[in-house]
Write a structure and sequence with these properties.
single chain; seven-stranded mixed β-sheet; alpha+beta; about 15% strand
Length: about 775
């Protein structure tokens, strides 16, 4: 019996091969997107969950009072961990750890870059570091080091017998004293080697180098602990403002969000879109399946009359439906296999992909079968009984399911296209709009050692360089920044809070090179710092509550300074972050700010690679001992937008698939409708109807469905995109032409799919059609 069901299912699959292929591909693509996105989201949400008592481990962080960086403050003095354990009985244990990259070299002159963690015994106890070989003496002496088996293989070719071997770390010799188990990549605490934390930093509050972790006792009230932490004297005595705690499993997407290739909310969005594609393809197939059932109503009625039971009827139709699902699963797993290298490189997920994908597909299949049961129940209770009574053709009022499925597919397609259009428009605006400073065709060259002056003279002579200076620094990103707290200014009210401001020194040079836009007042002109003149950005002026800031005074440190002018706000951080209040000086206001070791150069468009190669050749020939690093400002700024760029690519692919599913679904449904209404079309032609009249008969119905879908999709799309745009400081407008372009595009594709099929049906010989009926 099963063999007979499979034969019938295969024959139906081949008979309606176009519709079947579209449904299978749509389900496979939706399943692939949904499975990979869900797997990626789950991977991101389970970082560090493998640690013992992970639900009680937290990281200390602080909310910056001024938007000077793209992430929260997470670096504090080593003494902070000891103070937390001593002053807070709620803390079971606390530790301080710092991470850095270092070059390891062996006696064979093999150089390997590894990630080193400076730890103490509290870290080993809290995170249950597993010792594989050797001793824990490395925690008490800086002459030893612990490495992971993976690092041992990179350094010595094997993890066996490495205890006692010598390595050189940043020109300092160390002995491998222990082999410890690493944690892989699914953690925020990735390390290749462990060393004792620096002794000189352990007793100082003036140097912040460590991340602070703590384990709370069982049953501790988190909110009460947070409130107690806020009131502790760490806040005032050591200027640790806005202290908070973050669960270790949330640090990946809260604290370190900027390190993500794609932000978590965009992964969730992509997961939802994959589910919508599955729903779209599933409804498409269900509507076609139901339509085919209507066309097979006589066959089903005949089977019923000949003694076929309800169970056998269900088995026949279920095998037909399941065959498409199984083929879609097979094709979906093929898509996953083909996209696996790219997915692993992008997400870092390497384990459990196939098992999880099969599990997700099982869930999709259960959901699909539930929908199938609803369709079968309606068919067996209404359409089949009607056929047995002599009906056989479903009335138009009972085609709400078909029209509803088409409307839903069109809503999803139009929504996707509208959102993609707005994301692309916003990205174009951010990449090409005015951010208050010049960032294109600017290369920064930062030095670690050596003099910049001799290199500067050579670079000036390069034909691809249009401007160069050795006295500024890169604003995107800036390697350091200094902050001043302004408590007094002209017109200050008693209730006004102090203003945290970032300094931009070398103001006259930076203004000329980066083309800051002067809005009011005068420019700095290399005036000595004794004149006590500064320029402010727009955000600083608003913070002080001034309408006419030129000539106003404020207190910086122990100096009264006068506002010389105002510049337009310039964005040197992610466009999702607000601009900081900034003051611009002729020379550094802070005496201990490090001297700039940076060369800034403007180059001719399209000559970046040529310039880099020329400088590399120069450095190798003239300054072989110099260490330097390039940073292109446009490339760095583009990193701020990498999540949006990735989202646009992902949604673009899904949207194309969804539109194709919808359009081919309409085409397939029109095909089946034409086949069912062949006699009606023939009679209309006999009575004088022209081809145009037949076309209009179908177009009116589908244009009405398209209009209804557009109203719903554009309303939802506007609400979604308006909220998304509000996360950016600079926003593009939701223009009318985006609506018009999406509607016109979808309308043209729908019209074309209807016209090609109806044109063919309308040109058939009426006599042949009626005779065949």
């Amino acid at each position: 019996m099963i063999r007979h069901y499979i034969k019938v299912a295969c024959r139906n699959l081949l008979r309606y091969k176009t519709q079947s292929i579209i449904s299978i591909i749509g389900l496979a693509v939706g399943f692939t997107c949904f499975a990979l996105a869900t797997l990626w989201v789950r991977y991101e949400l389970t970082y560090d969950s493998f640690h013992k008592d992970a639900d009680r481990i937290y990281m200390l962080y602080g909310n910056s009072e001024v938007s000077l960086a793209s992430r929260k403050i997470t670096i504090y003095p080593h003494l902070t961990a000891e103070t937390l354990q001593k002053d807070f009985p709620e803390v079971e244990g606390s530790c301080a750890v710092y991470f850095r990259g270092a070059d390891f070299s062996t006696e064979e002159q093999l150089v390997v870059p590894l990630r080193v963690a400076g730890v103490d015994s509290a870290f080993v106890d809290m995170f249950d570091v597993r010792l594989l070989d050797g001793t824990m003496d490395f925690l008490h002496t800086d002459e030893q080091i612990a490495i992971t088996p993976e690092a041992a293989v990179q350094l010595f070719g094997s993890s066996k017998g490495v205890i006692g071997k010598a390595v050189e770390v940043q020109q300092q010799k160390r002995i491998v004293g222990a082999l410890v188990q690493g944690w892989g990549k699914h953690t925020n605490l990735t390390f290749d080697a462990l060393t004792m934390s620096h002794k000189q930093y352990r007793g100082s509050w003036s140097v912040s180098t460590c991340k602070i972790w703590m384990k709370l006792n069982k049953g501790v009230d988190q909110e009460a602990f947070r409130e107690k932490l806020r009131k502790h004297n760490l806040q005032e005595e050591f200027h640790m403002k806005g202290l908070e705690i973050m669960p270790i499993t949330q640090c990946r997407y809260e604290i370190d969000e900027q390190t993500l290739t794609v932000q978590l909310q965009y992964l969730v969005m992509f997961c939802i879109t994959g589910g919508l594609v599955i729903l779209c393809a599933l409804l498409n197939y269900l509507s076609l399946f139901a339509s085919r059932l209507q066309m097979r109503i006589r066959e089903m009625a005949l089977r019923k009359v000949c003694g076929s039971s309800g169970r056998r009827m269900y088995g026949l139709l279920a095998v037909d439906f399941l065959l498409v699902l199984m083929l879609a699963a097979l094709l979906g797993m093929t898509f996953i296999e083909l996209s696996l290298p790219y997915f692993q490189e992008l997400s870092g997920v390497y384990e459990g992909i196939y098992a999880s994908s099969l599990l997700y597909f099982a869930g999709v299949m259960v959901f699909s079968m539930c929908l199938f049961l609803l369709v079968y129940h309606y068919f067996s209770r209404h359409a089949l009984k009607q056929a047995l009574k002599g009906g056989g053709v479903m009335k138009s009022k009972k085609q709400l399911f078909y029209r509803g499925s088409i409307v839903l597919q069109l809503v999803i397609s139009i929504l996707f296209l509208f959102c993609i259009g707005m994301i692309a428009k916003q990205l174009y605006y951010l990449r090409n709009g005015d951010i208050g400073m010049e960032r294109k065709n600017i290369l920064s060259m930062q030095f670690w050692n050596g003099e910049t002056a001799p290199v500067l003279e050579h670079i000036k002579k390069m034909p691809t360089v249009t401007d160069v200076t050795g006295q500024g620094y890169a604003l995107i990103p800036r390697g350091y920044f200094s902050v001043a707290r302004v408590a007094e200014w002209e017109g200050k009210q008693p209730a006004d809070e102090p203003v945290e401001m970032e300094e931009v020194d070398q103001g006259e040079i930076m203004m000329d090179f980066f083309q800051f836009k002067l809005l009011k007042g005068e420019r700095l002109a290399g005036a000595p710092s004794e004149t006590h003149q500064v320029m402010l950005n727009e955000t600083a002026v608003k913070a002080f509550g001034w309408d006419d800031p030129v000539g106003k005074t404020l207190v910086l440190g122990d100096k009264n300074v006068t506002v010389l002018g105002v510049v337009k706000d310039f964005h040197k951080v992610s466009p999702t972050l607000p601009v900081s209040p900034i003051f611009i000086t002729s020379s550094s206001f802070q005496e201990d700010v490090p001297t700039s070791m940076t060369i800034l150069m403007k180059y001719q468009p399209g000559q970046l690679s040529v310039l880099r190669n020329a400088i590399d050749t120069l450095m190798q020939r003239e300054f072989p001992s110099g260490q330097y690093m390039f940073s292109d400002l446009e490339e760095t700024y583009e990193e701020f937008l990498r999540s949006e760029s990735a989202l646009l690519k992902l949604l673009g692919f899904v949207a194309v698939v969804c539109v194709l599913i919808s359009v081919f679904g309409i085409y397939s449904f029109v095909t089946l409708t034409c086949e069912r209404r062949r006699k009606e079309i023939a009679i209309r032609k006999v009575n004088g109807a022209r081809v145009k009249d037949v076309l209009l008969l179908f177009l009116k119905e589908y244009m009405l469905l398209l209009a209804m879908s557009s109203v719903v999709a554009f309303s939802v799309g506007y609400a979604l995109m308006k909220r998304w745009l509000e996360s950016y400081m600079e926003q593009t407008a939701i223009s009318w032409w985006v609506y018009a372009a999406v509607f016109t595009g979808i309308a043209c594709v729908v019209l074309l799919s209807i016209w090609t099929r109806v044109w063919k049906a309308a040109h058939q010989n009426p006599a042949e059609v009626i005779k065949s009926e």
